[in-house]
Amino acid sequence: MELPKFKYHPDPIATGVFEKSDDICECCSKAKG
């Protein structure tokens, strides 16, 4: 899954604001990312 482009925070994963996950959504059974 690709994240949207954030104008004021271009790389939220690298800075730790978001984190990658292998978890599965309980509602739709898709990967959370």
Blueprint of the fold:
Layout: H1 12-15
Describe the protein's architecture and organization:
With 33 residues, the protein is low in regular secondary structure. It has one domain (1-33). Helix content is 12%, strand content 0%. It is built from one helix and no strands. It has one helix spanning 12-15. The longest helix is centred in the middle third of the chain and has 4 residues, at 12-15. The protein is elongated and about 30 Å long. The mean pLDDT is 84.
Descriptors:
33 residues; little secondary structure; 1 helix; 0% strand
Can you give me a brief rundown of this structure?
By secondary structure, this protein is mostly loops. 12% of the residues lie in helices and 0% in strands. It has one domain (1-33).
| Helix percentage range | 10-25%
Name the structural class. Answer: little secondary structure
Question: Which of globular, elongated, flat, extended, rod-shaped describes the shape?
Answer: elongated
Poorly predicted regions are none
Total number of domains: 1
How would you state the average pLDDT, rounded? 84
- Tally of helical segments: 1
Give the radius of gyration.
Answer: 11 Å
How far from one another are the termini? 6 Å
